[in-house]
User: Fold this.
Amino acid sequence: MVDARLVQYLKTYLSQGYNREQLESHLVAQGWNRNDLDQAFGQISPKAEKPKFSFFGKPKQQVQQKPQFQQKPAVQAQPVMQAKPVREERPRAYAEAGVAHVERPSSHFVPVAVLACVFLLVGMFFYSYFYVINPTFVTKPVLTKPDLPTVGSAVSTKQVEYALNELDFYKLHGNPVG
Amino acid sequence: MKKATIIIAVILAFSLFSFIVYAIGSPPKISVTITDTNQAFDVTVQGHKVKANYGTTDNPDVIIKMDSKTLVAVYSAEDFRQEAVNQYKKGNLQVEVRADYATLALKGYKAIFDSFEQAVKQGMSG
Assistant:
């Protein structure tokens, strides 16, 4: 059974000068089934309004300006054909067939993933340089300065530790790959 | 949800990398020898803390040799780094690099190199 709103819609726009081909292509793009459209057109006119080939160019009605399908049709006066088939109003044939409404994957995932990878690489570079290769943000341990060593006498481990600490050896760390 | 997954993955990657760098990497090893007293010290750095023990080191990254007079001179100076550079130029302090540049870079020796380079420039300008 053909949707009465569809038949009314076709009648209205046919009377305004649009031809079957234009209406078909538009409605198929909106998700309508061709069989439904054929039936609807069959109800309107048995001759089916197929475009006639002519040696003398396009028929007059085809020369009219393009239908402005971008505009939403008036809500009350005419049947509303929304730009995208909303889930609850999708063509009956799809609902009866139990065809799942497959949503197209979000178009924002790839640029977000690429951006995330770029940030990750930049972050890893800065981390590698400022924390591994050239540790910059390491806090210097505060050590108590031991007694001054004397020439010729034994040196203590504390004196060596203090000296190397003052020479920035505290910045060193383990080799991450060895 | 996908953005949250990416953020969590980034945080985990950084955490894992930090763990590898600071926990399980082979620590830097420096051998310090006081020539006139025949003392050898095995110095390591763990958790950014310098730890010296008596004894020799197997496969040190860097070997530092000096006599006790040089150590006293460095110890007495206000600027350890500048005095160490001066003693190095005089030949009293010897530094022998044993590890390859990649190992030195991955253990953070560049920071020490940069600070000594700065001390050399200050010495030249001063």
